[in-house]
Design brief:
The complex is a heterodimer. In chain A, about 80% of the residues lie in helices and about 0% in strands. The C terminus of chain A is likely disordered. Chain A is mainly α. Helices cover about 90% and strands about 0% of the residues of chain B. The termini of chain B are far apart. The C terminus of chain B is likely disordered. The chains are: A mainly alpha, B mainly alpha. The interface between A and B is medium-sized, with 37 and 29 residues.
């Protein structure tokens, strides 16, 4: 399947119908999840209305981890099979991933103030999420700063693969260490522990974030494909008068 | 309505989080859409140049 999409024309054809589908899923799930999350879902018996932060915080955290997983998979694909679009996919996922990680840290900090009485603690979950955010920044910096694209791509793939080690650490940090952050309440072996009245808007918001991430990646890869095609065509256009000039000179000489 | 916006005294916390999410993700969506549109326009211009060049006998 990965090799099928490595062809830019096939990817473009897929993205042309997948992008509107992602947008429909995004808008549809937001239309239900936003009123549910902000109004219809009940307030928490301990946390009150601050629980509504969960509907933007938890999906952002899930997506920050999933986006890095996707980036690592694309980096591996680029390393092993040298698919031309794998690097573009990994690069397209880095920006949204960094924003999801930043939102996780920001919303978590704002939620932590009334709940824990502090904006920040150096516990395992918060610290590992900060490291994930910094890894995203490092990955983006590798692409931005390099002048040789081949070298940048190789280094970015290494950052993508090595950085993935941190993803399971983020996920299981609350189980492996004693943290101020609560243990997992959704993605658990014995099922979610939160009530369905909160689980539904949370699930729908997560679906909206997944659709948004898919749209981000599809749009950016399409733009990258166009950018490369434009660069190739403008090179060809620039070399055309020279070639015809040479031919004319050759004809005169002949 | 005022009660809804007050969020039980946690208006700053709740609205800041939802607002920041909207602004950051919406901003990235606009940036990505603009980039795709710019590329499409550039490709269109190149197509136009190509057709003019080709039409010259």
């Amino acid at each position: 399947m990965l090799s099928y999409f490595s062809n830019p024309a096939r990817f473009e054809a897929f993205a042309r119908w997948a992008s509107p589908v992602a947008l429909i899923v995004l808008v549809g799930s937001l239309l239900v999840a936003v009123p549910m999350g902000l109004y219809f879902s009940p307030e928490d018996y301990q946390q009150g209305h601050t629980v509504r932060i969960m509907y933007v915080h938890v999906p952002a955290a899930i997506m920050a981890e999933l986006a890095f997983g996707f980036m690592a998979l694309m980096s591996l694909t680029a390393f092993v099979w040298r698919h031309s679009l794998a690097d573009a996919c990994a690069r397209a996922a880095a920006g949204p991933g960094a924003i999801f990680a930043a939102l996780t840290l920001l919303t978590g900090s704002i939620w932590g103030r009334p709940t824990w009485g502090t904006w920040w603690v150096w516990d395992a979950r918060l610290t590992s999420m900060l490291i994930l955010f910094l890894t995203y920044i490092g990955y983006i910096a590798v692409w931005q700063m390099g002048t040789d694209e081949t070298k940048s791509a190789r280094l970015a793939r290494i950052v993508g693969l090595v950085g993935f080690i941190n993803v399971p650490i983020v996920k299981f940090s609350v189980d492996w260490w004693n943290t101020l952050h609560q243990p997992a309440s959704i993605l658990r072996a014995d099922g979610p522990t939160i009530h369905s009245s909160m689980l539904w808007p949370l699930g729908l918001m997560a679906l909206a974030y997944v659709a948004l991430f898919a749209w981000f990646v599809l749009t950016d890869v399409r733009a990258s494909i166009s950018e490369k095609q434009i660069a190739r065509r403008s090179q060809r256009t620039a070399s055309r008068p020279v070639a015809s000039g040479q031919m004319a000179t050759g004809e005169q000489n002949g | 309505m005022a009660e809804f916006f007050a969020m039980g005294g946690y208006a700053f916390h709740v609205w800041t989080c939802w607002g920041a999410s909207t602004v950051l993700l919406g901003g990235l969506a606009i940036a990505r859409h603009r980039r795709l549109r710019r590329m499409a326009e550039l490709a269109g211009k190149l197509d136009g140049q190509g057709s003019t060049r080709n039409s010259v006998p």
